[in-house]
Amino acid sequence: MKKFLVLSAALALLASCGKGDKGELVGVKGKKWHSEKPYGMTLIPGGAFIMGKSDDDLANIQDAPTKTVTVRSFYMDETEITNSEYRQFVEWVKDSTIRTRLAILAEEVGQKPADGARSGKGGGSIGDYGFADTDPEKMTAYDKYMYENYYSVGTDKDPYANRKLNKKIKLITETSKYPDEHYVEVMDSMYLPESESFNGLKTIDVSKLKFKYNQVDLNKAVKKKGRKNFYEDAPPIEIYPDTTVWIKDFAYSYNEPMHNDYFWHQAYGEYPVVGVSWKQAKAFCAWRTMYKNSYVKKQKGRDQVNSFRLPTEAEWEYAARGGIESGTYPWGGPYAKNDRGCFLANFKPNRGDYAADGALYTVEARSYEPNDFNLYNMAGNVSEWTESSYDPGAYEFVSTMNPNVPDAKNQRKVVRGGSWKDVAFFLQVSTRDFEYADSARSYIGFRTVQDYMGTDATGTRPK
C-alpha cells in the first residue's frame, strides 16, 4: 500500500509538470527572445573570405599567405573606443574605489548609515557610506544567508569581497562640505600631494584606480575535470591610460601638449583613446559586460547579454574588408586617394609630412567615410588590439573556422589597421603587426565586439 501511494504521488508530480502539453514532447518553453543590437555597434554578418595577402608581399614578411576561412556573425563597434567612452570606465572605477574605501573605514571606526542614507540623504558622517549590508535584519532571506555565509567572512585575500556598496548616496567633492575627519582621510588618500600635482591642481592618484575581474581560459579549462579553479586569479589592473606615451614614443620631439590634454580634455572627447595596453583593453571589455548586465539584471524577463571582447585577428580582417573580396584597403583600393585627390584615411603619406592628409595626430573617431559594414577608420588613425597572439606561421596551422591563436603565454598580440604615424603598407587590411600585451603606445587603440546569437545573419550564404 505504501509503495502504491509513493508511485501515485510521483505520477501526480509528473502530470503537474507537463500541464497543458497533453503528454507530448514539446520542450521547455523559455522567455521570448529578440536580438538586441548594442549601442554604437553594427552587425557583421558571418561568412567566408580569403584571409591574407592576395597581392605581392612587398615587405617580404611572408607571414600572411592566403587562406579561405569562415567567421561567425558578430557585432562590432562602429568606431574605435573614444576618450569619452574610456573615461566612463575610469570614472566608474574611481567612484567604486572611493566608496569601497569609505565603507571599509566606516566599518573600522564602527559607524553605520543614518536613517536617510539608504534613500540618498546623508546624515553627516562617513557612516552614511557604509556597506549596504550592515543591517542583516532588513535583508531578504537570501541576502541574509549570503551575508552570513559568504559576504561577512570575505576571502583569504580580501576580507571585504562581495560586500554591497551603498551607491544611493552621492559622493561629496567640495572640500568645504566633507562631513567628518574620516571622510577627509579617505578623500585625501585618493589624491597626490600638492608638491606632486600638475600645475598645483588637485590631481587624482591614478595608481589607485584598479579594476579586478575574473578571467577564464576556456582552452585550458576544457582540459580539466570538473570546475575547480575554473576562474584564474588575476591581479587588479591599473586602468588609467599611460599619457606619457606621447613623449616616450618620440625622442627629440615636442609632444607635451598631447601628454597634458589628450585624454582628459573635452576637446578630445570623440578622439580614439590611446596609451592603453592589451591588458587594459581586456579589462575594459570585462567592465563593459558587467556594466550592461548589472542593468539587464534589474529588468524583469531579460536575458543577460553576451560578453564584450576584443575581435580575433580573422574577425578584424573580415570586418575591415567590408565584404570586398581581395581588396587592398577597406575601401577596396589599390590607392589611398579618391578620384578628387583626397586621402581616404589618416596616416603618414609622405616622409615626415604627417599633416598631408589633413591631420597631424589622430582625428575624431567618425572621420572619413566608413566601409560597407559602416565601420570607421579600419585603416589609419590608430592601430587596434585584437584578441589573437602573434605567430608568423599561424596561417599554416589555424582552423579554417573562426581561426584564432589564443596562446596565453605568448605576450605578442596582433595589432591591425595601421595608424596616424604609419605608411600606407600598414593600412592594408591583410598586413599583420604585433605589440607586447603590457605595452601602451600613442598610436594603438581598440574597439570591441560581441557575439551574435543565432545563425540567421550569414553574409555569404546562397540567396
From TrEMBL:
<dbReference type="InterPro" id="IPR051043">
    <property type="entry name" value="Sulfatase_Mod_Factor_Kinase"/>
</dbReference>
<dbReference type="Pfam" id="PF03781">
    <property type="entry name" value="FGE-sulfatase"/>
</dbReference>
<dbReference type="InterPro" id="IPR005532">
    <property type="entry name" value="SUMF_dom"/>
</dbReference>
<keyword id="KW-0449">Lipoprotein</keyword>
<dbReference type="InterPro" id="IPR042095">
    <property type="entry name" value="SUMF_sf"/>
</dbReference>
<dbReference type="InterPro" id="IPR016187">
    <property type="entry name" value="CTDL_fold"/>
</dbReference>
<feature type="domain" description="Sulfatase-modifying factor enzyme-like">
    <location>
        <begin position="40"/>
        <end position="449"/>
    </location>
</feature>
<dbReference type="InterPro" id="IPR019866">
    <property type="entry name" value="Glid_motil-assoc_lipo_GldK"/>
</dbReference>
<protein>
    <submittedName>
        <fullName>Gliding motility lipoprotein GldK</fullName>
    </submittedName>
</protein>
<dbReference type="GO" id="GO:0120147">
    <property type="term" value="F:formylglycine-generating oxidase activity"/>
</dbReference>
